[in-house]
C-alpha cells in the first residue's frame, strides 16, 4: 500500500496555486488519475518518483518511508525505483530499443518477452529517432516494465496507440503486473483508454 | 630531419589529451549542473591561462616550479620530480594551457542535453555515475570528439610555454614545434618545411580518422 | 627605427638617450632575436637600422641587397659565466667537473651567438662532455638571463652587459670567461634600404653616431669591448 | 606601464572575435548539415593552423603577405593594404589562428539540435536564414557564448604569430602580450606582473559578465 | 482540392515495405487518417508538407503542382506552407508561447483570439518546458493555426487533451478553419477523438 499526502505550490503566471493530493493506493491496484490539463497530474507522478519534492506531506510505500517533510526525509529516485513512463517518453537517443531494455535489466528472457508484448521484435535494432510515435511509446512502457518495478507510473502512456493495439497491450500488462506484484498509477485523459485496466480513480484539480 | 621531436610531440599531445579528458569530464559535469555564481567564477578562472602569452605563462610556471620555489623544492625532495626542463613539466604546462578548450565545449554540450534523459535513468535506479557514462556522455559524442581534436592539435602547436620551461633537451623536451621554430630561426627553411609537412600529414590523418569515426558513430544503423 | 638584437637592447636605449641629448632626434628601439628581425626585414619590416648580435645575419642582409652599406662591427661582446645561487665562480670549470646538481643554461648554439661562444668556451676548457647532461638550451640570451636570475639553473653563460642592467638588490655572482676561449663575438650593424624612405639624414646621423667616441664610451661602460 | 598595448590588445581581440563570428556562423552551419566526406576534409583543414607553432605560422604568413610575395604585392598595389607590420595583418593572422575555436563548438552544438525544430520552422514558411537566426542560433546560445569567450581570450594571449608578422610597432602592433613578453625578457618582472594583472582583471570582468549574462538568458522567466 | 498519389519505400529491420497512398481531398474537408502504429501515417503527413520526398507519384494542391517525380518537381516546405502539428510538438525551447505565435504571424488580434481558443492566455509568457503536456500540445495547434494555412496537417493533435477540452477546442477549430478555407488532414488513433470533426477518412496500412 502506498500512503500519500502531499502539498505542492505550482507557480504560473496565473499566480500560485496549491496542489493537494491525499490517497491510499492498495497493493496491486491500478489507479487512474484524471483532471484538467495543467492541473498537476504530471507533477504528482514526478513527486512520487522523487524527481520533484513536495513542500509538505509524506509518502510511504509499504512500510518504507519515501518522503517526509517533517523529518526532512527524501529518498532519491534511484532508491524509490518506480517505473516511469514519461509523457514525452524520454528515450535515450544513443540506444537502440534492445539497448534500452538491456540498460534496464540483464534478464534476457524478460527482454524477449517484453519485446513480444510490445510487438517490437522487429524494431529491436532501431534507435528512437527511427521509430514511429507509437513505437516510441511502446518502448517507453517496455523500458519501465523491464525494471520489474513495484510501482509503475504511467503518464498518458497509451495516447499514441490505436484501440486494438492498446487493448492487446493492456491484456498482457495485467498479467505481467500481477506477476511483479506491482501497483500502478496511470494518468489518462480518455475514460475509454483505461476501461478494463484501472480499478480505481483519483481526481486532481 | 630527425624523428625524435615528432615522436615526442605526438606523445606529449596524446598524454595531455588523455589527462585532460580525465580531468575535464568530471569538471564539465560539475559545471554543467545548476550553475551558481561560484561555478561561474571557477569557469572564468579556468579561462584565464589563455589570456597570458604562453611564454609568460611559462615564466610563471618556471618560477613556481624552480628548485628554489617551495612547490618545486617540495616535489624534488619528496618525489624526486622536477617540473622544469623535463617531459613531466611539459605535460603539466600543456594541461593547464589547454584545459579550457576541453572543459568549455563539454560543459556547453552537457548543459544543452534535455534533463528528462537523466531523470529517466535515475528512476531506473542508475547512479549518477552510470547515467553520466551511459546516457549523457554518449549523447554529446560529437562535442567530445571535437574537444579532443582541438586539444590534441593545440598541444602539438604549443611552443611558448614549452620553450620557456623545456630547455630543448634532445629526446625529452625538444618537441617538433621547437624543432620547427629553431629551423626557421636558423634560416633552414627547407628543414622547417619538412617538419611542418610531416606534422601536418600525421595530424591530418589522425583528425580525418577521428571525424570519420565520429560521423559513423553518430549515425544510426539504418541510415 | 632601430631594430636591435635582444642582448644589446639595454645599451641601445642608453645610446638613444645620449643621442637625443646631443641632437634632439628621438629613436624608436625595437628589439628581438636577430634571426627573426632579419626575416622580418627581408619581408618588408619598416626598420631603418639593424644591430645584429653577430655578423652572419648582417652579412646575409647585405649580400641579398637589403642594406645601403657593408656591415660594420659596432662592438664585441664579452661572455661571462654567472649564477644567482651564491656559489663562488672563481673556479667555475671545477663546478662543472664536480658534477654538482643543477642545470647549466647556454643559448641555443645554432642560433644565438653567445650560445655558440659558450659552447666554444666549454670545449676550450675540455669540460663540454661533463657539462653536456646538465645543459639546457635557451631560446635567446634573455632567456638565459631569466633562468639565471630566477635561480632555475645553477650556472649560465651570458653577455657581460647583463651585469650593468641589474638592480643593486639582485643577488648575482659573475666571472668573465677568458676571451681566448671563444671566437670574438662580433656584432654587426647595417643601415637598411628602408631608411631612405623617410628622414634619411637623421637615420644616417644615428648610424654614424654608433661609431663615434661618445657611443664607444657607452658601449664600454656596459661591458663591450671595441675593436 | 603604458596603456596603449592593453588597449590595442582589447581592440584586436574584439575585432577578431567579431570577424570570426561573422565567418564562423555560416561555416559552422554549413558543416553541421548532412556531413559529406568533403566537409570532413574541410573541417580537418581548418584545424591545421593549430598544429603549427604560432611563430612558424606567423613566418609562413609573413612570407605570403610580404611585399615581395605575389599576394602581398597585389594587395599593396590595388588596395594600398599591407598585411605585414600593420594592425590589419594582426587581425588576419588572429582570425586564421583562432578560427577552429569558434567554428568547431558551434558546429557540434548545431549538430546536436533536434531536426524537428528546423522542420517546424520551414513548414511555417520561414527561410533557412530566418530559421537559423531565430530558432537554431538562440537554442545554442550557451555554446555560442563559450566560443566567443574562448576566442577572445585566445586572441588576447596570442603572441607568436603577432610577433612575427607584426613586429613591435608602438601603437599599431605592440599589443599587451608582446609588452609582457618584452618585460619578462628584459628582467622587468615588476612591469610584467603589472601588465598581467591588468589584462587579467579586465578579461576576468568581461568573462564573468558574459557568463552571468548567458546564465540569465538561458533561464526562463519563471525560474 | 488536393490530389495525392504517392509511393514511398519504408526501411525497417522487417525489410522494406512500400507505402502507397492515393486520395483526393475535397476543399474544406476534414480527413481522418488511421491505421496501425508504424504504418506510415506520420511519414504520409511529412510527405505532404514537403519534409520527406516520395519515390514516385505526384501531389497537387488546387491547381498548383507540389510534387511530381516524373518532372522532378518538388516544392520546398516553405513554398507549401502547410500548417503542421507535430506528434512531438517540435516547440521552440527559446520562445515563450506568445513568441511562438508572433513568429508565425504579425496579426495581433488573431494571436489574442487563438490564445483564447486554446485557453492559453495565462501561459503566454511560458516557455515550452514550463508548460504541461496538454498545454504544449495546444500551443502546437495554435502555432499551426496562426499561419492561416490553407492546409492543416495534425499528427495525433488531441492525444494529450481531456475529452471536455478537446470538444470545446474542436468547436472553435471548425469555425476558424472554415474562415481560413482550410482543408484538414488529421491522424488519430481514437475513433472517438475525431467524432464530429472529421467528415471523411483514409486508412493507411
Ligand atoms: N528515420 C527513420 N529511419 C528508419 N526507419 C524509420 C524512420 N522513421 C520512421 N521509420 C519507420 O517507418 C515506419 C513508419 O513510421 P511512421 O512514423 O510514419 O508511422 P506512423 O504511422 O506515424 O506510426 P504511429 O502511429 O506509431 O505514429 C515505422 O515502421 C518506422 O519504424
Ligand atoms: N518548469 C516549470 N516552471 C513553471 N511552471 C511549470 C513548470 N512545469 C509545469 N509547470 C506548470 O505547472 C502546472 C502543472 O503542470 P503538469 O505538467 O503537472 O500538468 P498536467 O496535469 O500533467 O497537465 P497535462 O494533462 O496537460 O499534461 C501547469 O500549469 C504548468 O504550466
Ligand atoms: Mg502532464
Ligand atoms: Mg506517427
Characteristics:
heteropentamer; A: 205 residues; alpha/beta; Rossmann fold; five-stranded antiparallel beta sheet; five-stranded parallel beta sheet; 6 helices; C: 227 residues; five-stranded mixed beta sheet; 10 helices; elongated; binds adenosine-5'-triphosphate; binds magnesium ion; transmembrane helix (chains B, D); MetI-like (chains B, D); transport (chains B, D); molybdate ion transmembrane transporter activity (chains B, D)
Describe this structure in words.
The complex is a heteropentamer, with two copies of chain A (205 residues), two copies of chain B (223 residues) and one copy of chain C (227 residues). Chain A has 205 residues and is an alpha/beta fold. Chain A has a single domain (25-52, 76-203), classed as P-loop containing nucleotide triphosphate hydrolases (Rossmann fold, 3-Layer(aba) Sandwich). Chain A has helices at 41-49, 77-80, 97-104, 108-117, 133-146, 163-180; strands at 2-12, 15-25, 30-34, 56-61, 64-68, 73-74, 83-85, 151-155, 183-187, 200-203. A five-stranded antiparallel sheet of chain A has the order 2-1-4-5-6, with no helix packed on it. In chain A, β1 and β2 (15-25) form a beta hairpin. In chain A, α3 runs parallel beside α5 (133-146) and α4 (108-117) runs antiparallel to α5 (133-146). The radius of gyration of chain A is 17 Å and the shape is globular. Chain B is mainly alpha-helical and 223 residues long. Chain B has a single domain (4-219), classed as MetI-like (MetI-like fold), CATH 1.10.3720.10. Chain B is globular. Chains in contact: A-B, A-E, B-C, B-D, C-D, D-E. At the B-C interface, α3 and α10 of B face α2, β7 and α7 of C. Residues 41-42, 87, 155 of chain E line the site of one magnesium ion (MG). Chains A, E: Keywords: ATP-binding, Nucleotide-binding, Transport. Chains A, E: Pfam families: ABC_tran (PF00005).
Amino acid at each position: 500500500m502506498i500512503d500519500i499526502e502531499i502539498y505542492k505550490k505550482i507557480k504560473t503566471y496565473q499566480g500560485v496555486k496549491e496542489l493537494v493530493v491525499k490517497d491510499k493506493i492498495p497493493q496491486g491496484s491500478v489507479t487512474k488519475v484524471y483532471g484538467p490539463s495543467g492541473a498537476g497530474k504530471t507533477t504528482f507522478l514526478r513527486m512520487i518518483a522523487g524527481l520533484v519534492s513536495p513542500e509538505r506531506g509524506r509518502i510511504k510505500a509499504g512500510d518504507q518511508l519515501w518522503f517526509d517533510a517533517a523529518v526532512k526525509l527524501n529518498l532519491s529516485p534511484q532508491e524509490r525505483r518506480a517505473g516511469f513512463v514519461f509523457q514525452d517518453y524520454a528515450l535515450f537517443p544513443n540506444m537502440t530499443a534492445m539497448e534500452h531494455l538491456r540498460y534496464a535489466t540483464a534478464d534476457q528472457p524478460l527482454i524477449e518477452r517484453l519485446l513480444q508484448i510490445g510487438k517490437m521484435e522487429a524494431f529491436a535494432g532501431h534507435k528512437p529517432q527511427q521509430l514511429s510515435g507509437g513505437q516510441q511509446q511502446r518502448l517507453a512502457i517496455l523500458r519501465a516494465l523491464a525494471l520489474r518495478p513495484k510501482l509503475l507510473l504511467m503518464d498518458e502512456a497509451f495516447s499514441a496507440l490505436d484501440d486494438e493495439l492498446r487493448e492487446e497491450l493492456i491484456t498482457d500488462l495485467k498479467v505481467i503486473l500481477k506477476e511483479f506484484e506491482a501497483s500502478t498509477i496511470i494518468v489518462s485523459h480518455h475514460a475509454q483508454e483505461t476501461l478494463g485496466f484501472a480499478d480505481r480513480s483519483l481526481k486532481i484539480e | 630531419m630527425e624523428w625524435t621531436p615528432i615522436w615526442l610531440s605526438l606523445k606529449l599531445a596524446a598524454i595531455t589529451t588523455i589527462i585532460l579528458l580525465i580531468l575535464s569530464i568530471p569538471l564539465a559535469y560539475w559545471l554543467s549542473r545548476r550553475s551558481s555564481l561560484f561555478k561561474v567564477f571557477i569557469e572564468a578562472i579556468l579561462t584565464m591561462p589563455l589570456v597570458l602569452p604562453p611564454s609568460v605563462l611559462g615564466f610563471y610556471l618556471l618560477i613556481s616550479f624552480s628548485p628554489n620555489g617551495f612547490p618545486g623544492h617540495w616535489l624534488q625532495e619528496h618525489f624526486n620530480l622536477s617540473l622544469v626542463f623535463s617531459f613531466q613539466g611539459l605535460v603539466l604546462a600543456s594541461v593547464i594551457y589547454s584545459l579550457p578548450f576541453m572543459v568549455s565545449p563539454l560543459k556547453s554540450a552537457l548543459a544543452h542535453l534535455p534533463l528528462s534523459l537523466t531523470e529517466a535513468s535515475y528512476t531506473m535506479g542508475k547512479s549518477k555515475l552510470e547515467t553520466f557514462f551511459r546516457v549523457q556522455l554518449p549523447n554529446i559524442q560529437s562535442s567530445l570528439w571535437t574537444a579532443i581534436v582541438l586539444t590534441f592539435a593545440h598541444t602539438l602547436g604549443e611552443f611558448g610555454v614549452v620553450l620557456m620551461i623545456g630547455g630543448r633537451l634532445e629526446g625529452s623536451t625538444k618537441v617538433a614545434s621547437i624543432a620547427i621554430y629553431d629551423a626557421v630561426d636558423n634560416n633552414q627553411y627547407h628543414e622547417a618545411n619538412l617538419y611542418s609537412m610531416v606534422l601536418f600529414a600525421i595530424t591530418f590523418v589522425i583528425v580525418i580518422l577521428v571525424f570519420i569515426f565520429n560521423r559513423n558513430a553518430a549515425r544510426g544503423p539504418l541510415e | 627605427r632601430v631594430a636591435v638584437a635582444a642582448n644589446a637592447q639595454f645599451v641601445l636605449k642608453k645610446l638613444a638617450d645620449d643621442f637625443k641629448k646631443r641632437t634632439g632626434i628621438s629613436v624608436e628601439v625595437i628589439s628581438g632575436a636577430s634571426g627573426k628581425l632579419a626575416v622580418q626585414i627581408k619581408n618588408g619590416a619598416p626598420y631603418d637600422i639593424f644591430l645584429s648580435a653577430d655578423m652572419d645575419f648582417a652579412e646575409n642582409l647585405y649580400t641579398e641587397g637589403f642594406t645601403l652599406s657593408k656591415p660594420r662591427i659596432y662592438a664585441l661582446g664579452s661572455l661571462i659565466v654567472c649564477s644567482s645561487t651564491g656559489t663562488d665562480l672563481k673556479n667555475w670549470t671545477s663546478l662543472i667537473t664536480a658534477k654538482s646538481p643543477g642545470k647549466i643554461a647556454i643559448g641555443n648554439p645554432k642560433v644565438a651567438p653567445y650560445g655558440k661562444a659558450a659552447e666554444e668556451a666549454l670545449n676550450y676548457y675540455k669540460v663540454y662532455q661533463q657539462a653536456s647532461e646538465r645543459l639546457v638550451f635557451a631560446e635567446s640570451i634573455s632567456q638565459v638571463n631569466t633562468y639565471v636570475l630566477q635561480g632555475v639553473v645553477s650556472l649560465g653563460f651570458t653577455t657581460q652587459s647583463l651585469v650593468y642592467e641589474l638592480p643593486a638588490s639582485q643577488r648575482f655572482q659573475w666571472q668573465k670567461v677568458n676571451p681566448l676561449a671563444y671566437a670574438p663575438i662580433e656584432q654587426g650593424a647595417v643601415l637598411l634600404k628602408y631608411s631612405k624612405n623617410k628622414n634619411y639624414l637623421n637615420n644616417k646621423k644615428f648610424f654614424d653616431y654608433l661609431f663615434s667616441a661618445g657611443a664607444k664610451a657607452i658601449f664600454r661602460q656596459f661591458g663591450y669591448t671595441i675593436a
